[in-house]
Structure formats: C-alpha cells, structure tokens
Amino acid sequence: MSTALEAYKTALRLRPGRAALYFRLATVYDEHYRDKTPAARYYRRFLRAHEGALPELRRYATSRLKALRPTLHMQQGPASSNE
After folding, report:
1. What predicted TM-score, i.e. pTM, was given to this entire model?
2. Is the pLDDT at 78 greater than 60, yes or no?
C-alpha cells in the first residue's frame, strides 16, 4: 500500500486541491492502516475541496468521518477531539 500512497501524494503535489486524490488517500488509509488519523484528515480535505465531488462520495466521506469519531477519540485522547 505504501506504493499507492506515494503515487497519490505525488499526484497531489502535481495537482494540489484535487478532491478525488484526497478521497483516494483517505480510503487507502482507512482501509489498510490501523491509525485512522490520516484517513480522517484526508476525508475532511476532500469535503472542503468542492471540485465536482460526486454526492455519493461526499455522503460516504461524511459517514466515514462520523464512524471514525470513536476510534479517533481512542487513538488521540480527549484533548485532541476538537475537529
């Protein structure tokens, strides 16, 4: 998975702000890594980047952020639960 992450990060450096890249990074971190903090960060960036994001992807990202809240709280502790 590290190869996919590097490819997406390179693409993001070349084309910053592309919503689709934020979404792909979020899903790779979400599905394949134990630490969900990067996944949540990229889901948030995706939701802020309004570049023609499909409503289905926006709903998915929003639902994943909601589902990740308890996990993020446990990973980071209560002091960093302010989003």
Report:
1. 0.79
2. no
Return contacts of 4-12, CB within 8 angstroms, 24+ apart: 4/28, 5/29
The residue to which tokens 């409503």 are assigned: 55
Residues 6+ apart with CB under 8 A from 45: 22, 26
Do 40 and 65 contact (CB within 8 A), yes or no? yes
Among 21, 20, 12, 31, CA closest to 56? 20
Cβ atoms of 37 and 75 within 8 Å: the answer is yes
Q: Is residue 40 packed enough to be buried (19+ CB in 10 Å), middle (13-18) or exposed (0-12)?
A: buried
pLDDT digits 0-9 by tens, 45-67: 999 987 666 899 999 999 999 99
Cα-trace Rg, the chain: 13
Q: Which amino acid is at 2?
A: S
